[in-house]
Each structure stands twice: as C-alpha cells, then as structure tokens.
C-alpha cells in the first residue's frame, strides 16, 4: 500500500462575517458564528501518501511539519491510528498573508486523509475535524456561501452551505503583501480579545450574522457589502484597541486602498472592502463592475497585484 496516494482540492474562503476569537482553545470554538464565500481562483491541492515520518512540502519546498504532525496525531486519536504520511501541497494562496491559506490547506488535508483511510464521513463531520487544525477551514468544504455555527461543544460547532444562489458577486483582490505576517492569526485573536470593545463586537457580530443571511436570501449586494465592511473594520479596530500589545495588520497601502474604495462608492460604484488577518484588501462588487474597478485600481496603484475572484466550488478529489 506504500504507493497509494490520495489528492484533495479545497478552495479558500473569504469571511464576510468574521471569526476573530476563541471561547475554547482546545476545541477551537469561536466566540461568534461566521459566514463566508468560497472563492474559485484560490485553492490548495494536497496529496497524501505513506512516509517514514510525517513530512510537509508546500510548492516543492520542505516545511516545518510540527503543526501538520500535531493535527495528524489528533486525527489518529479521534478516528483511528494510521502510519506516518508525506503531505505534498500545491498552494495558489500566499501563505499566512491574510488570504485564508490555512482554510484551504487544512480542509484539503482533512479530506485527503479521510479518503486515504477510507473513512465514511459527511462534509459536516469533516468540517468538525478540520476546525481543530484551522477554524476557517470548516467553511472551505462547501461551495458559494457557507456558515460556521459557533456552537458550545464539538458536536454543535460545524459549517454548512447556505442555499445555492446565482448572485453575481465578485471580489477584486488587492494583494498588498504576500509575505508572512508578523502577528499570527492565533496571537492576533488573543490580543484582540483584550480590547474593551470586544464584547460589543461579539454582540454586533451576532446581529450582522443574521442580517447577512437575509441580505443573501434577498440578493441584496449593497447590503452584503455594507455589512461585510462594517464587520471587518470593527474587527480590525479591536487590534488597535487591544490592551495586550495592540497592533495592526494595516500598512499605508491598505489605508490608501480603503480610501479609494470610498471614492469609488462616491462615484456610484458598488464597492465595499473586507480584510482578513493581513494587509490585503478584498473589494466586494458585482461581476459587471469588477473589471472596471480593477482597471481603476491599477491606474491609481501601478505596483498593486490585482485579481478578480468569483464564487467557487466545495471540496473535490482527484482519483
């Protein structure tokens, strides 16, 4: 069986209602429910095969396998024991730069191991397992819009797809920095939770989570964008108001692009910003305006790397 391989492909997701803080570090239970859009253009393909020890290669480069090894050990204890694995990933997402690389990576890894071991698990089951590697990975098993229920224990914290929609949403992704961020998401969340504004953000996020589902059902792109921008900017305000080592993921280019988004709206464009744990800005718009917005950004910020992203599929396998 040493030559057996299994490959899974998972797409990254962008949270429109964010996950930013844990109420249970062991189970990776979030303080809020979140809602995301899976993206077609960014993904991770992960192949697993037998090895002499747990090893990890990303884009043909050997990586520190500690985080992957710990997650595989969790799967060995949770489901069934299995031997060492060689994990080979092809990642189209800049790692640890705030473009949700860990979401697609851990979703693909979880799915690949489950298929490799012939585990008969539902997508819901897989989302619970992947949560222990990366919280946002729970949502990358599903196409289009997905929700991750915060839950109160392992069983109740899982992700599921929202009803399919042909909403013509698009994101203009502004890759301001593709380097590894100085403050990891895990550390950033811990610091953010010390902000005096944190409990207020949690309460508001619960309201926005419900409102976002209504906006999607109503196919109201303006409301979707408005809610996403409010939620994201309030999340980043937690970082700069933290009492424990306040910080920011923003740089000057982030601020300049945010100002440009406001200017686009003033011109009558559908344009709202969302930002994960990093400096990169994603502009929510519709598919008719995305190319024009991209062109305007390129004209204003000539060195900015830009890409248009559209709704993507759920988990898939190469047999």
Automatic annotation (TrEMBL):
Alphabetical keyword list: ATP-binding, Lipid biosynthesis, Lipid metabolism, Lyase, Nucleotide-binding
Alphabetical list of InterPro entries matching this protein: GHMP_kinase_C_sf, Mev_decarb, Mev_diP_decarb, MVD-like_N, Mvd1_C, Ribosomal_Su5_D2-typ_SF, Ribsml_uS5_D2-typ_fold_subgr
Diphosphomevalonate decarboxylase-like N-terminal domain residues: 10-159
Repeat recorded as keyword: no
GO MF term list: diphosphomevalonate decarboxylase activity
Domain of life of the organism encoding this protein: Bacteria
Pfam families: MDD_C (PF18376), MVD-like_N (PF22700)
EC numbers: 4.1.1.33
Entry similarity comment: Belongs to the diphosphomevalonate decarboxylase family.
Listed name of the protein: diphosphomevalonate decarboxylase
Native species: Fructobacillus americanaquae
């Amino acid at each position: 069986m040493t030559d057996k391989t299994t490959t899974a492909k998972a797409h990254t997701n962008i949270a429109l209602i964010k996950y930013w803080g844990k109420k249970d570090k062991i189970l990776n239970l979030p303080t809020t429910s979140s809602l995301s859009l899976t993206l077609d253009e960014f993904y991770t393909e992960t192949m697993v095969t037998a090895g002499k020890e747990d090893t990890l290669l990303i884009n043909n480069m050997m990586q520190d396998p500690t985080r992957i090894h710990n997650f595989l050990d969790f799967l060995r204890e949770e489901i069934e024991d299995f031997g060492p694995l060689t994990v080979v990933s092809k990642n189209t997402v800049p790692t640890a730069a705030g473009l949700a690389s860990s979401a697609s990576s851990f979703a693909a890894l979880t799915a690949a191991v489950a298929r490799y071991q012939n585990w008969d698990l539902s997508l819901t089951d897989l989302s619970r397992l992947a949560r222990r590697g990366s919280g946002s990975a729970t949502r990358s098993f599903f196409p289009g819009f997905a929700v991750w229920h915060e839950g109160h224990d392992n069983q109740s914290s899982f992700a599921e797809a929202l009803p399919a929609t042909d909403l013509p949403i698009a994101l203009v992704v502004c890759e301001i920095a593709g380097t590894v961020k100085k403050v990891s998401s895990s550390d950033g969340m811990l610091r953010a939770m010390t902000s005096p504004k944190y409990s207020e953000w949690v309460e508001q996020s619960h309201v926005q989570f419900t409102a976002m589902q209504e906006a999607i059902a109503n196919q109201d792109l303006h409301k979707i964008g408005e809610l996403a921008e409010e939620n994201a900017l309030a999340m980043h305000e937690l970082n700069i108001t933290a009492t424990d080592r306040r910080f920011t993921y923003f740089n000057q280019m982030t601020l300049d692009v945010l100002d440009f988004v406001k200017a686009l709206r003033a011109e009558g464009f559908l344009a709202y910003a969302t930002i994960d744990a990093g400096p990169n800005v994603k502009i929510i718009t519709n598919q008719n305006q995305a190319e024009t917005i991209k062109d305007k950004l390129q004209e204003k910020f000539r060195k900015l790397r830009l890409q248009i992203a559209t709704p993507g599929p759920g988990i898939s396998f190469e047999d």
